[in-house]
Design a protein that fits this description.
The chain is of the alpha/beta class. Helices cover 37% and strands 12% of the residues. It is built from 10 helices and 13 strands. The strands form 4 sheets. Strands 2-1-3-6-5-9 form a 6-stranded mixed beta sheet, with helices on both faces.
Length: 361
């Protein structure tokens, strides 16, 4: 009887522990959904290192969906794999239409054969894709994840291409204490410059090392690189480079709010340029995108609030404050906190990346 009682107690304790773990995991997942992508980190990193002293390979005959003589900006993506290709049936034509309206180039690098295969999938392939797009002569390049729609065709991306900076990076707002100044790499913009090329080459090199220095925690909890693994792959690596190089990176980086061009459901404000759905199941993504497209006027970014389907996808900004005004408020807030300050004399030399041949140097 005693053995039976012990077995019963053990079973009850195990069940209780599993419930605690399940609740904790659910809490963590919900927290990550607050402006973060919910993807597992890699167990190893195998990107071949790049010789920063070698010129970047040219691809003069690179094919693409939309190639233009006007090389002001290109939108690039990488939709590969069953889930990405399925959601891409909805999102890729949308990206193409937006690019055509504004005269931007558009490339889905999953359909091109110019890049070497990367063990980590798209997380670092996106940076190789940016370098290849630079080689085509584009002045600015926007990376756009496959699980995102352009919602407001009246807003040109070049509105955000600040010539004082080389890297435009959406990050968490100051009010979001957990994720303040933490990026989501679903969308970001690079200017074709010597600094951008050197920085991206260093990112690709650092991603393959499997070891790194540790600096202080971000917002009291986030360790960008832990035991050689970068948090959420490229996202942790970008944060880590800001810690390692300080103003040599941040003076080239303009931090903007997610609502500039990486809004996440349900924190999307009507009139925002882009809606991004990281960390959601494929059926959930399809449902949200199909419902929104059915009630969206993409030319103005307005949603038909009289349509019964609106309630199933209702989002923030209940006061209907113009999205452009909200973006300007965020930019002012970021500047007041010192998050954005262009390079001064003796700041931002790209040679710092050439001398830093590995993350531990």
């Amino acid at each position: 009887m005693r053995n039976i009682a012990l077995l019963a107690c053990t079973a009850l304790l195990t069940l209780a522990l599993c419930n605690i773990i399940a609740v904790t995991a659910d809490h963590v997942e919900r927290a990550l959904a607050m402006k973060r992508r919910n993807n597992p980190g890699p167990t190893s990193l195998h990107i071949p290192s790049i010789d920063l002293n070698e010129p970047i390979q040219k691809h003069p005959s690179l094919p693409a969906q939309i190639t233009l003589d006007n090389k002001q900006l290109a939108i690039i993506t990488f939709a590969k794999g069953a889930s990405a290709e399925q959601i891409g049936k909805i999102t890729l034509p949308n990206k193409q239409r937006y690019a055509q309206k504004h005269g931007y180039g558009y490339y889905n690098f999953a359909q091109l054969s110019v890049l070497p295969p990367d063990a980590q999938g798209m997380y670092f392939t996106k940076f190789r894709s940016i370098l290849a797009t630079f080689d085509m002569g584009y002045e600015w390049v926007l990376w756009s994840d496959a699980d995102a729609l352009f919602m407001n065709f009246s807003v040109p991306l070049l509105e955000f291409a600040d010539p004082l900076y080389d890297f435009i990076l959406p990050v968490g707002e100051p009010a979001n204490k957990m994720y303040a100044k933490v990026p989501n790499n679903g969308h970001f913009m690079f200017k074709n410059s010597a600094w951008s090329r050197a920085y991206i080459a260093y990112i690709l090199q650092a991603s393959s090392q499997g070891h790194c220095e540790q600096f202080g925690l971000i917002n009291g909890w986030l360790q960008p690189c832990d035991r050689g693994v970068f948090w959420l792959d490229d996202q942790g690596l970008l944060v880590w480079t800001q810690q390692k190089f300080g103003r040599q990176v941040t003076c080239h980086t303009k931090h903007v709010s997610f609502n500039h061009f990486d809004s996440e459901y349900p924190w999307y404000n009507e009139g925002d340029l882009v809606l991004h759905l990281p960390g959601r199941s494929l059926p959930d993504r399809v449902r949200i995108f199909e419902t929104l497209l059915a009630i969206l006027d993409s030319e103005s970014g307005k949603l038909d609030r009289e349509d019964a389907r609106f309630e199933s996808v209702r989002m923030d900004n209940v006061n209907h404050q113009p999205a452009a005004d909200m973006r300007r408020e965020m930019e002012a807030a970021f500047e007041s906190l010192g998050w954005n300050k262009p390079c001064g004399a003796n700041e931002g030399n790209p040679n710092v990346f050439i001398s830093a041949t590995s993350p531990t140097q």
